[in-house]
């Protein structure tokens, strides 16, 4: 979970709703989030990135997530479930209208859904260089 301290404005990384605090990013790193008057954001983005300078002329073999494609599902592919955001009153609410995008789905991909105990969820990742990603 990543959440904003309403008193000091720092952004904290926490393991689950009642878990250990891992650390924080100082509010000074996110000055652009104060533009709405109440210090909020219009959009939340999650992402993964694998840098590939193609020194050998082929895609990097760097894995993303578990190194498995989303279609392999639970127990194989990496996932996020119960994706939520914090509203103006510091309450967790389910994320809605998730837009999923993969620039190179033969290398890394994403697939998601909504419902049941998982709420909004997505599987993501891939092996990097493979027969579908030369």
UniProtKB/TrEMBL annotation:
<dbReference type="InterPro" id="IPR004314">
    <property type="entry name" value="Neprosin"/>
</dbReference>
<feature type="domain" description="Neprosin PEP catalytic">
    <location>
        <begin position="1"/>
        <end position="134"/>
    </location>
</feature>
<dbReference type="InterPro" id="IPR053168">
    <property type="entry name" value="Glutamic_endopeptidase"/>
</dbReference>
<protein>
    <recommendedName>
        <fullName>Neprosin PEP catalytic domain-containing protein</fullName>
    </recommendedName>
</protein>
<dbReference type="Pfam" id="PF03080">
    <property type="entry name" value="Neprosin"/>
</dbReference>
